[in-house]
Design goal:
It is built from eight helices and two strands. It has a two-stranded parallel ribbon with strand order 1-2. The longest helix has about 90 residues. The protein starts with 9 loop residues before the first helix and ends with a helix.
Length: about 260
């Protein structure tokens, strides 16, 4: 129920599996010693290649047991043939292993080439897209320029059409002042007039309105009827005539008041 936490990870503290010391009995050759070259991470735990290597070692060991004795002269030719056959078999196996390695390297090279080709395709597509975007932008700018030039030419043609015979036309001042859309009231900025510039010239500047001394002087110059208000009480309206009759308008007012109540 009690846990501990160390300063090291289990992966850092993990060591290779323990291999105990051994002593080989004289006159014996254990088959397990054929795996002495394999270590943890380099052949162990055993895979398919290691199993095939073990099977080949067993076959070679069984083949070595079938070789004739070296002191028998009659069996020398037979032993030589068996050794040559085994060597040819070993060379064929080595060539097959080399071919497998070359095929594996070829597959890796194909994958690298395919990946490089894909990257090159992506780069080419990006370049084409950027080039297409630049061409589209240039096209839009050219279209805008053409439309602008077309508008200018249309204005020139309209101006020329107004004066077909090329005669000088006098300025019709009355017509310009009666038309509030004429150059007199609304001049165009393209002919060199900018109404927003120097707009302060239209501001009214008056000494009597902008300064306190001017206001006092203006107030002193005004008559008393302007500064002193005189209110006269209104005279009541007479509702009867000279002969004593009630006027018709008065009777109507009385009736309206009764209806309102």
């Amino acid at each position: 129920t009690l846990g501990t936490q160390t300063d090291y990870r289990d992966g850092e503290a993990q060591t290779d599996p323990y291999t105990p010391e051994y002593v080989v009995r004289s006159g014996s050759l254990p088959e397990l010693l054929t795996l002495a070259t394999l270590t943890w991470g380099r052949g162990l735990p055993a895979g398919l290649a290691e199993v095939e290597m073990i099977e080949r070692a067993r076959e070679k060991h069984a083949w070595a047991a079938t070789l004739p004795a070296k002191d028998d002269a009659s069996q020398i030719a037979k032993g030589r043939k068996m050794i040559e056959a085994m060597e040819r078999k070993e060379w064929a196996f080595r060539e097959q292993e080399i071919k497998k390695l070359q095929d594996f390297q070829l597959e890796v090279l194909k994958k690298l080439l395919w990946r490089r080709e894909e990257n090159q395709k992506e780069l080419n597509a990006k370049r084409l897209n950027d080039h297409w975007q630049n061409l589209q932008k240039a096209k839009e700018e050219k279209i805008k320029k053409i439309q602008h030039d077309c508008t200018l030419m249309l204005r020139k043609l309209i101006a020329k059409r107004k004066n077909l015979l090329g005669k000088l036309e006098k300025r019709d001042i009355i017509k310009e002042y009666t038309d509030f859309a004429s150059q007199t009231y609304a001049p165009l900025s393209r002919i060199g007039f900018f109404p927003d510039n120097h707009s302060e010239c239209y501001v009214v500047k008056n000494f009597y309105l902008d300064t306190f001394a001017g206001l006092c002087e203006l107030e002193a110059s005004l008559p008393d009827s302007v500064t002193q208000v005189k209110i006269k009480a209104p005279k009541p309206k007479s509702t009867t005539t000279k002969t004593g009759f009630v006027k018709r308008s008065a009777r109507l007012e009385v009736m309206l008041a009764q209806v309102h109540q």
